[in-house]
Design goal:
By secondary structure, the chain is of the alpha/beta class. Helices cover 38% and strands 19% of the residues. The protein starts with 6 loop residues before the first helix and ends in a 12-residue tail after the last strand. It holds the Pfam family Zn_Ribbon_Prim.
Length: 913
Amino acid sequence: MTEILKISDIARAAQGQWGGIFPTLGINVPARGKHGPCPICGGKDRFHFDDIEGRGTWICRKCEGKQAGDGLDLVCKATSKDNKSASLLVAQALGLTAGLDVDTIRANKARSQRQAEQERQREHARHKAATDLAQNILNQCQPAKGHPYMVGKGLAECEVLILQSPVMAGNVELKQGVSVIPLYNAARELTTCQTIDNSGHKYLLAGGRKAGSFHCIPGSEVLAICEGYATGLSVHLATGFTVYCAIDVGNLRAVAETVRDQHPSAEIILAADNDADHQENIGLIKAKSAADAVGGIVALPPVSGDWNDYHQHHGIDKTREAILMSRKQSNVVSLADKTRPAKSPIDDLKPRIEAKGSDLVYVVPKMDRDTGEIHETQNWLCTAIELIGRGRDEDGAHFRMIRWKENGTGTERTDAFPLEIVGEREGWARMRRGGLSVTTSRMLRAHLGNHMQLAGSDQFCRVVSRSGWQHGAYVLPNAEVVGNPVDPVFFNGRSASANAYRVSGTVAQWQEQVGALARDNVCMMLGVACSLAAPVLDLVEADSFGVHLFGNSGTGKTTIGMVANSVWGHPEELKLSWYSTALGLANEAAAHNDGLMSLDEIGQSTKPKDVATSAYALFNGVGKIQGAKDGGNREAMRWRVLALSTGEKDLETFLHEAGEKVHAGHLVRLLNVPIQAITNIHGLADSRAHADAVQQAAKRCYGAVGREWVNYLAVHKDDVIHAIKTAITAWQARLPEKASDQVRRVASRFAILEAALVCGSHLTGWMPDESKKAVQRCFNEWVELFGMENRERKTIIDQVIAFLNSNAFSRYMVLPYDYTAPQIRDAAGYRKQEDPKAEEWTFFTFPHVFEKEVSKGFNPKMVAQIMADCGMLKRDNGKDAGFTKRTPRIDGRQIRCYTLLFAPDDTDQEGGV
């Protein structure tokens, strides 16, 4: 006996399924919430499918009488059938009764898909043209204050984008001087823009994707949604809220739903227009609908008009009071508490994926046609996962944000899972490595892959592989975000010391227990200066550099490092080692971007060459260029760090002893500072007791100062930048004229350390003068080692003098040449005493010896120029003369040689002039 289904039962069974029913019946509708062609009247773009509560609801403003209805109504009108016949078609599409043959269903779906694809292509072309035009308009805009429209709205001091030259938008000319408001989608991609001329006439680019697009005015964590741009500015100025401008009332709900998806737990306020003077208060109605959809509240102006009107008539303070009063009087409704529609008697028979305890299962429902009972088969897929959002990184790669608990440990983990490997072997392997169990069934994995791509939250976040300043906030290497980013940020990098970035104690406790004991001890204060200066390098666009503190065992290297590290986290666990590869250090640098990189004991490295390579690579701020799998090159890693290194030997000595050449570039990137003795033990028994007390205090109080410092920088950014620039100017002015560019570069780096320490006085508890003296003393110690003049010049002069000292009388043949004298093997040239009384020799050096041995490691022309400048090389006179001279005649011929002299008496070891 055939079961007779009621129309109401069929309608309930179809609830939530209309998106699949319509194509089966050959009815093409746009995506939910979108506009498109009408399957009834054939109109091009006035049909809207909103599918409220899954009932297939729609409206067409082109149909005669502006028709609307639910899914069954649409089937009736599109197929020209009555309710009973139409409901039978729906039942057949749902598989509730026999009916449509397979060929008919396939033909209907194919036709619907063709129509949908054609419309998608047309829509995509329209949207792309509008986006390209919007970008072209933005490229011709400049920010400015005082636009006439803004002046008329009481917002004269608010900057808006102003079009600098006329632009044709189809048949409409956008005149020079109009204001431009760009609109973006949830992924922060430009979609279209609105223009407003001096008289307030508004124009939205034709063909742009308006639904769900908005203009965001960033502010606090409370989110407000309004209609117009001027209204949004008034709400933001009054409250400081982050405001999303939907541009018109019809877009409020779409924007609200987009915002809710991105911020599932945020408080959302619909700053409605009060259309009380109209026949229908459409502003309130639409705002209330949007608020109900997202669990928000409505803030309505007490009188007719929008919030900008209220702002102009009552002032900013009254506007703030009115908005906040609406906020207090409303009950915020949680999305989780909203009443859900009751299940229909004939439940959804589509297979689904759902969580069952600690697992995710694929549920296949099947109805028993005899009893009407639904039996479910559950197929295990994997350990339960939460799909909490979507992300995109700096390179444009997309990710699925996944959260789960590891099998065994129960540790909660979050991962930015690359979309490109979802459903691939690499993706399943990654999930298993992360502590998830995954089915081995290929068919079930296909369902799981689709689920991972399509289900869950669409909240957007920025995925970053570098720590430091990212999108308005500061990201620590443990993925902790300090501050309020423009978009949520997820750190996808890795650091060997990530777990060390935690907090114990308060800033006040650090001052009393660590800062107080470090006071007056210059190297400890310098270590803290390095910690505080690390995040300010980005603010002044300074290059990376490091400070290397060296001294014998027992001089306090460990204690200094612990004091510096305690600013950011656990003082011992934050330490990294020089005992690593250059690539390993580069990866750590990216993970410590805009932060302190603490490197312990340079002598631990078994390969001094790696230290030399790393010292360059670390502070150049760019990693190796590597090829990509799909062709081309991967984006090179970039970073900006400040390193604090320790060791028993300075960098120069360490490399020299290993036979590695030391370049000046090493010594101006990693600054050698000898550790100074403890000068104030603050009443303790001796320096050992003082060191023990400092170390114990650092283990108790750590991490709080760094976070408070970042918050301070976010608020006082301009003040800190000004302080740094002022300090650099002062330091440069104090240097003697003979100071080389290298010394001046290093002085600017010490100036940054000083300015950071002074600006952080409220955190350290140290007086500004104390901080300045400590940093300046360390700079003086650096100068004692490096010298005031160009280090490469000094190194070259030393190298040439050393060559002459070693070879002057063993490898140079005396002139006039004595053929009876013993022959010299491996001769370097000739030597001649011009004046026997003066005891001065001239050394005619063969070109190949000068270029290969004398100039080893340097450009021979540069060496020759420096030798000529300091009086150690004779050259021919004349404008175009080179660096070689002809020798006296030997066997009737003259050859060209580099003519070297010993250093004049006034040439010191520093290459002074």
